[in-house]
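Second opinion, please. Please look over this fold, written as tokens:

===
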Amino acid sequence: KNNYLSQKLLISKSNIAPSNISVNVIGQVVSPGIHKIKSNSPLSSAILVAGGLTSKANRKSIQLYRLNDNGSVKISKFSILHNHKLNEDNNPLLKNGDTIYILKNKWSRTSQVMKNIFEPVTPLINVSSLYKILN
């Protein structure tokens, strides 16, 4: 594994490999969108370039979408917790075109569902309340 990583780093420093890659960071980050980062940067670097996680982020549910050479998409799931030591298994090196999706935490998802349920009836409740006050 270490020999493989050293070879990747050597190639990334050569003239063959681009010095920067583009990755798309979406979901619960401060500045979502396409960001340029140095080649062979880890997942955590892309999240930091995107401004870091928001308070609504689910640190246990970070997904990496990677387009394979055969056209299929590989989805890998990661956790970034303060007490975890970041290594190749939970902080992989990124490739050009990777997409990182940070999901909302359970509380934020539940709040959004409740908002979606009650928002359409809120005007009716307000009219009903006003009617009761006037009578």
